[in-house]
Amino acid sequence: MNGPIPKLTIGVYLALLPALALAWTLYGALPGIAVPTLGQAVWASGFSLSFADSFPPSLFAVHFGAPEPASIAFGLAGAYPAALFIAAGMHPADAYSAMTAFWITVAFLSAWRIALRLQLGPYLAILAALLWISMPVGWRHTGFSMVSIGIALLPFYFLAVVRLVFPFDREIRGRIGIAAFYLAACFVAVFMDGYTFMMFAVGAGLFLLGAFIAMPECRRYLLLFGAPLHAGSFILAYLAYVAYIGKPQFEPASIPFFRGWGADVTFFLWPSRGVLWIWDMLGLSEARTSARYFGDASVWITTFILPVAVVGVAAWFVTRSKGWVATAILLIALFGLYMSLGPSLKFASVRPPDMSVDQALMPGNLAIGSTGSAILSKNVPGFRNMRASYRWVALAFFGFWMLTVLLMAHLAKGRRPFFAILLAGLLIVGNLPHPLRYWRETTTNRASFMAIDRDLVTDMRQTLRPGEMVAFLPYGNDFFVNYLAPSVGVRSYNIGGDKNLSLARREWPPVMRRFSAGELDADFARRVLLLLARREADAVVLPYIDLLWAAHSWPSPPVFRESMESILEELASTGLLTVDKRDNYAVVRLAPAFAAAADQQALNDSIRRLRWNAPDSLGTDSFNAQTPHQVGELTAGTLRTTSQTGFLYHGPYLPAEAGTYRLTVKGTLETPAGAWIDVTSSKGTINHGRFPITRHGAASGLILDETVQLAGSAADVEIRLWVSDQTDLTLTGYRFEKAD
Predict the structure, then answer these.
(1) Residues 355 and 264 grouped into a single domain
(2) Do 268 and 304 form a contact (C-beta atoms < 8 A)?
(3) Do 145 and 46 touch, CB atoms closer than 8 A?
(4) Cα separation, 71 vs 77, whole angstroms
(5) By CB atoms within 10 Å of each CB, which of 159, 304, 446, 666 scores lowest?
(6) Among residues 467, 465, 475, 480, which one has the least CA distance to residue 511?
(7) How many C-beta atoms surround the C-beta of residue 373 within 10 A?
(8) Residue 127 lies in a domain
């Protein structure tokens, strides 16, 4: 891998162009013609649109995930270039395709450079690069946006490793270039996709270890320069990512999740029907559905690796005697294959007939046995977040591809280039999708994207005003809002992406946090009124469409219209709100008489007179994920202090009539340390009583027992428990009820 690269002629560069065009087509990255996917493109394009709203483009989205600017949990390395294309005048759909084409070009040229390093001729290297781009583990992941690009970029990442281990120039000037490339690859990887960042880290580490063992003459260089560069680059990249998203890691998944999303061995051995053209034509594919298998379709439509694995192993047998590189690459591939199985070995392991299709997590008793990888998945940082275990197969694909390139170079040197061409050609043809069907799919994606603008964005611009704060309720994993909010020019609390949602929800205002994800509960209409009355939102949109799945398939049916009708009637009946019904959604606002901030007192009085189901008792004996709190942790239905200062609880933001109330607070108290409880209303501006917490009565499980007088009806009673960083307290429940 350290030999000279052949001289490149103009003919070689001309031959690259059609190969690149085919690569772009395979990924659906054709601006003005096709888009790789719809749902994830809509989601990511929302970030790009919001980034591009400022100049130079920002790194944070300000139109959704409010009130704080939203970082993108993964894919900044894709969304930001797309923002640049949007700033240059491209439509978001075409900007997404252009961004994808850019990174696929980088991936293709990197694979080509690796093939040249492996002593393949320039024209055969083009064929080898096309072979890599054709791997279904890459293009079949386009529905997961940056995951597919990250997989495609594995040659780019490993080119940095090859340059480190086999430099043409180990002098200081050469090392600066090597270090800069390596650091850049780490930053691209961490901000593109966490899965391939881990594959890069593990694969590079294994390759460097192999070089250290097999190349005694380079040990000093690798020990003093290579190893520190490797560790330092990954640490710096990770720290930059943490600084950007503001969180060191996301909650790891359970082992049943790793097991459910682990690959079944049969997925490696024969393909799934409807994915690969030639295999379907030959009748050698198998129909697979979620009704039989755990996980989701991505587990079985991306993992057919048998052809390239067989060639890769054969290549190792042929080339292993020529140096340590083939063995190191084989070990990397086998490690990826092993990890892709997940914590349990599965061979045609299907769900029992009586198990619900919704049960994607796999119990351990349904597998053949343990693979042992659960030790890594449970305990090792990085590995704990690789919850879709099967994706490790991308590292195996890459390793076997490199071994295939070694075999092609061996055949070409033996004056048998025809066999190298035939080998690569057969593998490429076996990797191709159904041509016409895939073309229709990617071009339809763009047509649907443009229809979203025509059918929905244009309509929303007539009902929502630029700069307004809008809540789409009930909230969920609202992919569509990512695109709608910046397209219309409003701000929204909602955001798409489960990781982004968990980050945003921590900063939501109290009433917004009281809504339950995807639920229209008994207090839903009341909370909508309070959200507007407290000026925490200028407008509330009640969508008739599913804001997750409508982004993946447009036009989308108004599946929630009927269930929303009773809510809309209830809201309109208050006389305090206006309801504007559209084809795909309804917009709820304060009535013009109460819209101005100067009318707040009149609005509060009207809500009090409404006496909208004001209960005689407020409280709870258990807390859940919707419970608003600034500090502390939720454990088994209780809230416990964690040496932080702030409100351990605040809520429930429900109405109460005038009168005398008894407030009882239950829990265990070790150290009060200045903790107190108060009762407020009108966004905390009216205080009905504040009480210090003492140890009196704590031994009986009663932290506080006090009388509170409400001089008038309150629309949004808020009970707040403030703790210091020295307070040691567990809150188990409370009651605020009318005194006898």
Answers:
(1) yes
(2) yes
(3) no
(4) 12
(5) 666
(6) 475
(7) 22
(8) no
Picking from 250, 251, 206, 252, the residue whose alpha carbon sits closest to that of residue 374 is 252
Q: Are strands 539-543 and 469-472 parallel, antiparallel or unpaired?
A: parallel
Give the residue ranges of the chain where pLDDT is below 50.
Answer: 613
Amino acid 562: pLDDT: 92
Distance CA 83, CA 280 (A): 39
- Taken in order 653, 657, 659, 664, the sign of the CA dihedral is negative
Q: What CATH number does the domain containing 683 carry? A: 2.60.120.260
CATH, residue 539: 3.40.50
Beta carbons within 10 angstroms of residue 467's beta carbon? 9
Q: Out of 563, 581, 610, pick the residue that ends a domain.
A: 610
689/636 same-domain check: yes
Scanning 380-497, the segments in alpha helix (DSSP H) are 393-413, 417-431, 435-452, 458-463, 479-488
H helix or E strand, kind and range, residue 308: helix 306-319
SS3 738: strand
Q: How far apart are CA 281 and CA 672, in angstroms?
A: 73
Query: Residue 289, Cβ neighbours under 10 Å: how many?
Result: 11
Answer yes or no: do 535 and 660 share one domain. Answer: no
- Regarding whether 636 and 547 lie in a shared domain, the answer is no
Q: Are 396 and 334 in contact (CB under 8 A)?
A: yes
Distance (Å) of CA 39 to CA 32, 151, 544: 18, 19, 18
The residues with which 659 forms a beta bridge, in sequence order, are 710
Question: CA 475, 142, 195: angle at the middle one, nearest 5?
Answer: 80
pLDDT at 254: 87
Per the CB < 8 A criterion, the answer to whether 630 and 647 are in contact is: yes
Tokens found for residue 452? 């979203």
Q: Which two tokens stand for residue 362?
A: 């796999």
- Verdict on whether the full-model pTM lies above 0.90: no
Q: Give the torsion sign (CA, 141, 142, 147, 152).
A: positive
Cα 111 from Cα 394, distance rounded (Å): 15
Asked if 412 and 343 sit in the same domain, the reply is: yes
Buried b vs exposed e over 509-520: b needs ≥16 C-beta within 10 Å? bbbbbbbbeeeb
3-state DSSP assignment of residue 556: coil
Domain contains 341: yes
The reply to whether 460 and 331 lie within a common domain is no
Q: Are 157 and 204 in contact (CB under 8 A)?
A: yes
Last residue of a domain, one of 577, 610, 643: 610
Q: Phi, psi (5° rounding) for residue 732?
A: -105, -20
Which residues are 198's β-sheet partners?
A: none
Show Cβ contacts of residue 12 under 8 Å, excluding neighbours closer than 6 positions. 122, 123, 126
With respect to residue 503, please indicate whether it lies within any of the assigned structural domains.
yes
Check whether the bond before 555 is cis (ω within 30° of 0). Answer: yes
Three-class SS of 344-386:
EECCCCCCCCCCCCCCCCCCHHHCCEECCCHHHHHHCCCHHHC
List of residues 6+ apart from 681 with CB closer than 8 A: 688, 710, 714, 715, 716, 717, 718
Task: Read off the tokens for 635.
Answer: 């454990």
Residue span of the structural domain in which 480 resides: 451-610
For residues 477 and 549, give the distance between their C-alpha atoms in angstroms, rounded to a whole number.
10
Beta bridge partner(s), residue 708: 661
Q: How many CB atoms lie within 10 A of CB 363?
A: 15
Q: Are residues 570 and 636 in the same domain?
A: no
The predicted pLDDT at position 696 comes to: 58
The pLDDT score that the predictor gives to residue 173 is: 66
Give the chain's domain count. 3
Let me know whether 513 and 554 are in one domain: yes
**Residue 543, in any domain of the structure:** yes
